[in-house]
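Dear colleagues,

As part of the handover before I leave the project, I'm documenting each prediction I ran so the next person doesn't have to rerun anything. This entry is a single chain, and its sequence is reproduced below.
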Amino acid sequence: MRILWLDTQSPFFNLAAEEYLLKNTDEDIFMLWQNADSVIIGRYQNTLAEVNMDFIESHHVTVARRITGGGAVFHDLGNLNFTFIRNIQPHEKEIDFERYLFPIVEALQSLGVPAEFSGRNDLTIGGRKISGNAMVFHQNRVLEHGTLLFSTIPDHLTAALKVDPSKFNDKAVKSVRSRITNISEHLPTPMTVTEFKDYLFQFIMRQEGLSSIGTLSEEETILIQEQAESKNATWEWNFGISPQYQYHQKMRTSGGTIEVVMDVKRSIIHDICFYGDFFSSRDPEELARLLTGQSLNRETILRLLQGIDISTYFNNVTNKEFISLLPV
């Protein structure tokens, strides 16, 4: 396994590095990294629906989109990010967060922090969130990454993000702030975020039988910076343009929130986009391309979906649930 520390606080570079290492290397990787104040948007999210642009602009917070699904998260230097990139067999291509998060939970518990896996993709302490996670597959490789709220500023986190009320099952809980906590508040012995980073590195290296932390090569750094500038830092990637739509529907499912917008003319789907904090093992844009140009009627949609497992595009979502999103 290759152990890396990304010595930059640029979300554009760090997210580009993840994608480059996933797609252009063939070794298992564990890395830690930090971003300056930023909101990191899930691959399929509608950016303007997720961020408080007034706060973002007035506080000079960067908005960056990642290649994994899931919801928007806030990063600052009190937050530590981790990434696992691993080679997998075809039968291992499943969305199983608990499997990849086990070493992180072990490391936290070894510090006396009572962390545990919770829900579909979180780590919590006493029911309060300390880590949100996401993953993406590329060929025979998987990238799983997450946040570790160590000493982040809760007020900035809550101000930067818009909250979807449908995510609160308990109506007594009304704010993100009440649902999160910092790891530093639960340590038996105080430490800084830098000491915490060093401890995590040492813990993983002991598990893997390694003794040194590596860095990106000069060639990797140049190629990653090129991608950061040509893709990750662009308005098109981070905000993009939503289609002018005549139909809009949003639904909360067991796999997350799915939102569909469509431009329909004379009962023909001319454009369709899917947004949400869902996870997927296949790119939903494939499904959008399949539906574009088709008649918007139930028989056509059912015929197109024959033999297609919708849960590969929207994890844990059934074909029946998906069809209920469409006006057919």
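Residues 168-174 have pLDDT under 50 and may be disordered. The radius of gyration is 20 Å.

All the best with the project,
I.
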